[in-house]
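Narrative progress, year one. The postdoctoral researcher (J.K.) led the effort to move from monomer predictions toward full complexes, under supervision of the PI. The following entry was the first complex the group processed end to end, covering 957 residues in total.
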Amino acid sequence: MSVIGTIARKEVLVALRERRVLVLGAIVWVLLAVAGVTGYLVYAQQHSAIVQTQQEKRQEWLEQGDKHPHIAAHYGTYVFKPKTLLSLFDFGLDAYTGTSVYLEAHYQHEFMFRPAQDHSSLIRFGELSLALVLQVLVPLLIIFMSFHTITQERETGTLRLLISQGVTFQQITWGKLLAHGFLLLSILLPVVVGLIIMAFLSDAQAKMTDLGLRSILLIVSYTIYLFFFLMLSIWVSLRSSSGRNALLVLLSCWIILTVLMPKTVANVSERIYEIPSMREFRAAIAEDKAHGLHGKSTKSERQEKLKQRYLEEYQVDDVQQLPFNFEGISMQAGEDFGNRIYDHHQERLRQLFYRQNHLASIASLLNPFLAIRHLSMAMAGTDLHTFIHFENEVEHYRRELVRRMNHDMAQNSTYGKFFEYKAGRDLWDEIEDFTYQTPGVWQVVQYYKLELISLLAWVIVLCVLVYYSNRKMKPINE
Amino acid sequence: MNRATRKIIQYEWKVFIRNRFQLLMLGVLFLFGLYAIYHGQAEIIDQRDTINAVMKLEQSEFDAYKSSFTEELKTLEQEQTHDVASRPAYAWYRHGYHAVLPPHDFAALAIGQRDLYRYYYRLTAMSLYYQLFENELANPGNLLTGNFDLAFVLVYLFPLLIIAFGYGLYASDKEHGILALLKVQATSVHKVLLIRMLCYFTLVVGLGLLLSIIGLYTSGNPLQSQNWLPALVWLVCVIVYCAFWFGLLFAIVSFRKSSSFNAIAAVGCWLLFLIIVPAVLNVIVTTRYPLNSVALADLTRRTGLENEDDKEEALAVINEFLEHKPELAKSDSALEENLLPKAYAAFTSLKDIHHRQEVDAYYEGVIRRQQWAANYLWLSPAAYMQEVLVKVVDTDLGQFLHFQDQLVSFHQQISDFYFSRLFQNRPISREDYEQLPVFSMVQNGNKWFPIFKGIFTIACAAILVFSIGFVKFKKEECL
């Protein structure tokens, strides 16, 4: 049997005899179980509520009765943000992005109802999810498990005995790493198995693109992340003169990485790139709609121009002579113009969000916790980019709906006789129901290159550090 | 103070200032505290700016209306403005009034839910529910991360400082072999320990009070009549909360385990109180009291009459509305002229009347959640302290629910103002502009009781953990 194997076996044996690892493991298990069960309950509750209401809204749309298409476009419909299956693993931003949006002509409503608003300020402490346990608590478990693994050998003098037997530092360190990795894996195995079963056996495949791949990527990234903490703990233990010092250093790292830095970065980004208030945002859009982008043309000027263009094109003197209802055309032109203005302002707003988040991405190069947090949300489909993808799809659907209504109005109604024409069920049926498919995983991951680099780089850096420290190590510290 | 006590304090001070690491920690925490105050104030200044901006918009809107009565109407635009200013048929849904929840002077110290909830609304006489649910713009990622305010520094970071200072007391003496020397002294070991803890307590609480006083003074004047009580209570909170953590640490140290054990146990408690208990409470609340906001979404739909040129339908709607508002039905004028705007006004008001129960039920659900969670807050003194602090500076959920409650009556006031004129066919005169509806926030009466209850509970917890430590030490000493 190799030396590394022997060391690892001894380490596991000692850990099992000491109750600490068992107790800590049990606590983590309980938390994982609670997180898993409640995560599933929340998912199931919200999923069924959303599916049901979405169906009701569809019925309402179809059975709205005969009315003018433009009134129907104002009657509009609602879209609710579907819960992704993996959101039961990582709630991500779900509590802070709105859940429903009203789609109507002329006006882009923002998402309403952030679930966090239904809670007291306690919600700001965070919700228990599998992701929280794995990102925050398990690293602490690793620290508690491994901080004294080498310092203890040193303090009790067994290190000297080991070295004198011809065992090298490399063998000791990697043996211990193997043992702790094994212990950790056996504690976390249920999560891995659970994720895999969920990904490959559930029928929710259709709702979430690349569910299997996402789950595997989640497992891989968390493995790398936790391996980072394992390496860090063992390296610090290797370098420290006493267990107490190792613990102090590791706990400080943990607090800086998981508590202090994320908040600081987010708040600094908030100060650097300031978000306008909703009132300002809306006022700017209204201003541009009335006077054109950069004050170029007023609404009546634009309408006059459009009219002239159509009169010339069809060689007629009056809009009433056009082979279609000009009101429908002008309505759609107004809609297109409004959309352009909105796109302009929304893009500016999103750029602010991106810049704020980019700062956090840069910070993740220094902080693997930030890296895993962003990646985990991305894989679970609860991050900002997936939300924006969803927002875009919804807006696209709204535009299509309004366009179809205006088109129908132009084709079938008569100029100036608004109330005479009514469309019916046939037209409502033409509008397909809104369905949403999350983007492919690679499409989302491309936004998180820095985070991927961070995770990999940190593990490599620590491997190198451990390797070199081993070479330089002496059995007694003076 | 006897000689021995003085000596102990003297030596502890020497040890303390020689330990660079501890000094560094203290300094870094102080800087973090200053940054937190700065960040909180920047956030609140932004909000105040927004409030000023929207009030200015309202001011200029109404100035235009007012001046349209006196100036000569030359352009079409001016005429339109005068129509909107004087004819209730236009005015009722175009005149917007802002209801504002101005931040408490000390809101910068604990931002609470202020970044998540709307603190200003523009209300017209249209259906309240069209106007109630729009959110403020925010980066959801940053909302999730939360604010780096002074409350965060006090609630999250101060306990860590206390742990860092205290976990080695007694245990490290034992580990360094000083304990045996201490034991032969006339002063008992636990008394020495208590005095040393008291030194650190003074130091940490001193830092907490210093930061708080800086924060209080730079955010508002604590000596003003409406501010002195919140300021005083804030300072008491700092003392009580630190006392709890020192008590807890004393209890842990009293078990006379190794310093590593103490550190693990103390950090474990920190984890329990600051992360696990709140996180578990939150998911339990979510699953136990499911709230379905999707049902409310429907209220924001801009529906209108089925057929706008059907006079019978319009009259039916108006009549139904007048049943709820008999005072408007007194004159016959209600059913003449401007039928379409009247019907529309009646329609949106009826919408509010019909759906009030639904909305009330929803917010009752939110309150039930809050109450349930409040019943278990004692499980985590840290979460409890956070709740108390946000309550002191009026940034808690209750304040926002109260604000939304007041919106209902303000909205009623606006509706009454316009509808009385619309339904009696009276134009709006220049004089009417002197008695426009004004929003005034009636303060929540029983603000302080839950705060004192919270402080009392945490103080009890502090006494409890301290007593455990004290008894444990006494018992060991007798052996």
